[in-house]
Amino acid sequence: MKKKIRRPEKTAPPGKAIFLVAEGTGETITKITNAALAQFSKNTIVVQNFFQVATKAQIRQVVKEAVKQEALVAFSIVAPALGDYLLKEAARNEIKAIDVIGDFIFQLSAYLEQQPKKIPGAQHILDEAYYRRIEAINFAVKHDDGKTPQGLGTADFVLIGLSRTGKTPLSTYLAHQGWKVANVPLYPDLEPPAELFEIEPHKVFGLIINVENLVRVREARLTQLGLSSDAKYADPIKIADEIEWCEGFYARHPQWQVVDISNKAIEEAAVSIVTAFQRAGGS
User: Fold this and answer.
1) Nearest-CA neighbor of 50 among 68, 14, 74, 70?
2) How confident is the model over 168-196, as pLDDT tens digits?
3) 49 to each of 7, 35, 69, 122, 276, how far by Cα in Å?
4) 225-255 pLDDT tens trace
5) Last residue of a domain, which of 123, 141, 158?
6) pTM of whole model > 0.85?
7) Do 188 and 223 sit in the same domain of this protein?
8) Residues 113 and 200 reside in one and the same domain
9) Exposure on the CB side of residue 143, measured as CA atoms within 13 A
């Protein structure tokens, strides 16, 4: 007679639970999951992370908890033995488990006619690209907010724009992709550094934003600083004047590329900048 499995008492929370399991940092599966969940309402979804999972004992503990919460288990485990064990444990306990990238790797292997390396965290190998990203991050920090303008000529591209138009976050995001980015703030009553006008025009990207968005961002900044949102810094009329001046400034330099970041996520703005740069002959 087949022995009946004794399962833990279920303590499922309201809504749905998703367990993310990875043998490394979990960066890949987190990005994939966030992209997928963006298509759904997250109000009743609880995501729990189980990273650096390297043993069968850890997997058994994850599965045990998944049974309690009636969770969906999504995993990114490269080591075949460990991944297979998780699938078997999930099936034995009657819970759903998804191998998020395993099937894709299998199909790639067949198409490329190569065996995968099966190295956990292979995307984090300390290769030339890794050191370029580190160099780019250091460059972005050194050339943030108009610092060391004499180095603008060595940037892959330069972001310019009014205060709180996302120059620093964009520079940082692009630096993590390996681009050396400098940024320079623009003020109606202050002349930009002379070096800005000496670099190749296709490297300069002027950021623009609508009045409503800039007011909201500046009000949030004032709140962070404990200041009144009524300050001139966030005054819609003053901001409208600044934007009009900025658009006129860009118009006087038609070879610069203008990127409207209104209602754009950092990722979207970054793609727009890189695409425009490459179309203009950058690499």
Assistant:
1) 74
2) 999 999 999 999 999 999 999 999 999 99
3) 22, 16, 14, 20, 37
4) 988 877 899 999 999 999 999 999 999 999 9
5) 123
6) no
7) yes
8) no
9) 31
